[in-house]
């Protein structure tokens, strides 16, 4: 007679454990265990106080502050903060975990996770059962042999091996009447921390997670799936287990892993490979690898594993070497990002309110521009306009108050997180700290190092770093010069309200540098920055109104913006305001005031101010008997002439074409004196510098030099070339010169026609 016993060895082992485990076989001891697990701390130490503080900041202050907002990421933000809180609880009470790289072990029900971990690590700690063991995160790390449970009151409870083995669904089956329906240890325990002195890897922590897919688990299956997703999502790396009896990876495994979307490649383990026979192992491995690749899941490795019952150590049958993979992870330093996470979550809210405030300012500016028309509007429409203006002013006040409270809350949270982290982890600095480090590198001219820091923090959304990264690309500091990249990073910072970036973006749209020239876009960004008090943007906006680029020309408005910039000692603003007084545009003409502003800007090295100051001394500050040659007074004092040449030269050496042309005129005039040949050469040299920049008058003068052989070798061909460039810009004298010498064109076809 043969007995048909339909039990696996796993089932038999689980049944045996239930009979010998004192917490399962003895009701009194079982209930004593439960009472211990429910214990509350008698006192509150510093770490628990900080945890309580953080809990209050998240669950009271944060929720209250954001209750009336319209931030679309509110639910996600709260979830991230709650996850952060849980991670910090683990860190505060189990500081050794903070410095460990966490390897999460996941898989479907009956994949054999606990068995695999026990045999991989050479331990006998995790309960092995057909029933789901628990949804409690269970960590195994190297350390003095001990097992600690953390309950919902953040109380540490020491356990023995039998206590851990009892923490399964079997416990509920034994004490159903005492515990009530639906009880689970996940309700009272946050995690298990198991230390083992002989663990092979010093810097790794292995995390056992619940099987997500028990077919008959009903609603609990979805709960376990959610728990597994969260736990594995927080792990640094993932080991995913597949039962060899399934033949390949199942579709629900693939769906789970796609939803997990872990940033690191997954290492796959085919368990119970010894039960399917060696002949099938290769086929299973090939099929599994093909399905993983087809699903687009990054694979760190694939092995077949055998962990026979009764054996403490498992063995690798085929595939990649998991030992090498784990050894590599063990050597990598572990950095935590708790403060960065906190900062990023709160920064999302802060940016949302900043954008709302900026939008309100735009609306208020538009509404204020309509105020001059209020008297002409019907009474009810005028009242509506006034109401809308008042509404926007109130909105701005609320946004400013909200921003102040958010910034304060962020400081409080970062302080609490910093106090918890302490020396327990190598915590990555928050963005502001990294930014300050980058700025110190910048000041020390360690540009490559600074660029790397700016890049890292800019990617996190830090506006100051985005702005500086734009500057680094614009100027080729520590990075290849790239105006398009500069515009990209300036744009990111500008959209977050960074005034300096907005000003730089305005300048690029104005000059067509890195972007197509767009005066309207320039005005937009200049205005954004100007209204925040950025002097450069105020000067730029003034120039737009002065020249009528992107807006209707309005000298009065130009004067206002130039004045704002000039009073901040901005050289562009001073030069622009000087122009207004010099020519009487938007103000009464006043040379003395103009020269004062030019002087202020010139002494700061402003090329155009230096040029205009040179013009004042050399061309416009004339004696009563003065007359002009080349548009230049020849009756100035020696002091005025020297001052003019000094300012022209400073501007010319900065590449100012107008100043280069003026120096050409000066030396051309001086060439009539003794040593005229040297002066003539200087004249031709300065004319050439200006001509090569497209200065029409200088092109004509250089043509004259070549025609006459003045300071250069006589060359009709060169003369024609420069005449022609000037003529094509509409220069009348150059056009006349070409028409007066038609034989040049007739005798040399390469010159072409006019």
Helix content: 55-70%
Major sheet details? 10 strands, mixed
Question: How many extended strands?
Answer: 12
**How big is the Rg?**
39 Å
**How is the largest sheet built, in terms of strand order?**
4-3-5-2-6-1-7-8-9-10
Q: Counting H and I runs of at least 4 residues, what is the number of helices?
A: 34
Gap from first CA to last CA: 119 Å
Poorly predicted parts: 1-14, 215-221, 623-635, 745-754
CATH architecture of the domain at 46-65 and 78-331: 3-Layer(aba) Sandwich
Annotated CATH topology of the domain at 46-65 and 78-331 = Rossmann fold
Shape: elongated
Structural classification: alpha/beta
% residues in beta strands: 5-15%
The chain-level mean pLDDT equals 82
CATH class of the domain at 46-65 and 78-331: Alpha Beta
- State the fourth-level CATH superfamily of the domain at 46-65 and 78-331: P-loop containing nucleotide triphosphate hydrolases
Q: Would you write up a description of this structure?
A:
With 754 residues, the chain is of the alpha/beta class. Helix content is 60%, strand content 9%. The strands form two sheets. A ten-stranded mixed β-sheet has the order 4-3-5-2-6-1-7-8-9-10, with helices on both faces. β3 (146-151) and β4 (156-159) form a beta hairpin. α4 (46-66) packs antiparallel against α5 (74-93). It is elongated, with a radius of gyration of 39 Å. The termini are far apart.
Primary descriptors:
single chain, 754 residues, alpha/beta, Rossmann fold, Serine Threonine Protein Phosphatase 5, Tetratricopeptide repeat, ten-stranded mixed beta sheet, two-stranded antiparallel sheet, 12 strands, 9% strand, disordered C terminus
């Amino acid at each position: 007679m043969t007995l048909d016993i339909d039990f696996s060895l796993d089932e038999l082992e689980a049944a045996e454990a239930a009979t010998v485990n004192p917490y399962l076989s003895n009701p009194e001891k079982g209930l004593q265990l439960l009472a211990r697990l429910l214990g509350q701390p008698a006192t509150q130490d510093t770490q628990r106080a900080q945890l309580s503080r953080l809990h209050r900041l998240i669950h009271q202050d944060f929720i209250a502050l954001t209750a009336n907002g319209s931030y679309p990421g509110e639910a996600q933000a709260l979830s991230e903060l709650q996850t952060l809180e849980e991670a910090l609880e683990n860190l505060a009470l189990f500081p050794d975990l903070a410095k460990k790289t966490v390897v999460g072990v996941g898989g479907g029900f009956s994949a054999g996770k606990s068995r695999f971990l026990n045999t991989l690590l050479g331990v006998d700690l995790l309960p092995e059962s057909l029933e789901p063991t628990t949804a409690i995160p269970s960590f195994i790390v190297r350390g003095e042999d001990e097992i600690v449970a953390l309950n919902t009151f953040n109380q540490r409870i020491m356990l023995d091996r039998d206590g851990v083995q009892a923490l399964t669904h079997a416990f509920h089956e034994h004490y159903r009447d005492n515990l009530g329906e639906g009880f689970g240890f996940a309700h009272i325990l946050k995690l298990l921390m198991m230390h083992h002195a002989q663990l092979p890897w010093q810097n790794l922590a292995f995390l056992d997670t619940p099987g997500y897919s028990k077919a008959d688990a009903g609603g609990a299956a979805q709960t376990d799936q959610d728990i597994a997703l969260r736990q594995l999502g927080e792990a640094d790396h993932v080991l995913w287990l597949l039962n060899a009896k399934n033949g390949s990876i199942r579709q629900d495994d693939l769906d789970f892993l796609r939803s997990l979307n872990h940033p690191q490649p997954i290492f796959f383990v085919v368990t119970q490979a010894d039960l399917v026979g060696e002949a099938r192992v290769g086929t299973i491995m090939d099929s599994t690898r093909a399905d993983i690749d087809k699903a687009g899941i990054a694979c760190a490795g694939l092995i077949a594993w055998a962990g026979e019952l009764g054996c403490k150590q498992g063995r690798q049958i085929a595939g990649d070497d998991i030992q090498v993979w784990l050894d590599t992870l063990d050597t990598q330093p572990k950095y935590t990002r708790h403060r960065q996470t906190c900062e990023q979550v709160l920064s999302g809210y802060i940016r949302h309110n900043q954008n709302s405030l900026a939008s309100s300012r735009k609306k208020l500016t538009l509404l204020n521009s309509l105020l001059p028309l209020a008297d002409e509007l019907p009474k009810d429409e005028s009242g509506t306009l006034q109401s809308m203006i008042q509404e926007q002013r109130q909105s701005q006040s609320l946004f400013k108050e909200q921003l102040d409270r958010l910034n304060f809350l962020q400081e409080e949270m970062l302080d609490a997180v910093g106090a918890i982290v302490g020396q327990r982890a190598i915590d990555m600095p928050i963005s502001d700290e990294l930014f300050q480090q980058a700025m110190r590198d910048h000041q020390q001219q360690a540009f490559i190092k600074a660029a790397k820091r700016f890049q890292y923090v800019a990617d996190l959304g830090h506006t100051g770093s985005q702005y500086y990264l734009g500057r680094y690309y614009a100027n080729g500091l520590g990075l290849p010069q790239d105006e398009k990249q500069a515009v990209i990073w300036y744009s990111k910072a500008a959209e977050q309200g960074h005034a300096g970036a907005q000003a730089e973006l305005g300048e690029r749209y104005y000059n067509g540098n890195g972007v197509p020239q767009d005066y309207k876009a320039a005005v937009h960004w200049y205005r954004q920055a100007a209204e925040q008090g950025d002097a450069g943007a105020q000067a730029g906006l003034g120039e737009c109104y002065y020249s009528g680029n992107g807006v209707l020309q309005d000298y009065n408005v130009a004067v206002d913006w130039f004045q704002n910039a000039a009073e901040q000692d901005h050289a562009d603003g001073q030069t622009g305001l000087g122009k207004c007084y010099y020519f009487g545009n938007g103000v009464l003409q006043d040379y003395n005031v103009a020269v004062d502003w030019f002087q202020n800007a010139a002494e700061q090295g402003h090329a155009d101010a230096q040029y205009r100051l040179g013009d004042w001394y050399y061309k416009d500050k004339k004696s009563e008997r003065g007359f002009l040659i080349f548009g230049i007074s020849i009756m100035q004092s020696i002091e005025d002439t020297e001052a003019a040449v000094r300012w022209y030269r400073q501007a010319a050496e900065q590449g100012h074409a107008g100043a280069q042309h003026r120096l050409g005129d000066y030396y051309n005039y001086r060439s009539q004196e003794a040593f005229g040949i040297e002066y003539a050469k200087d004249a031709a040299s300065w004319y050439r510098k200006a001509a090569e920049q497209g200065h029409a008058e200088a092109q004509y003068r250089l043509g004259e030099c070549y025609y006459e052989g003045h300071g250069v070798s006589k060359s009709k061909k060169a003369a024609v070339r420069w005449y022609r460039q000037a003529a094509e810009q509409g220069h009348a004298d150059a056009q006349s010169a070409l028409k007066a010498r038609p034989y040049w064109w007739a005798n040399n076809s390469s010159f072409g026609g006019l």
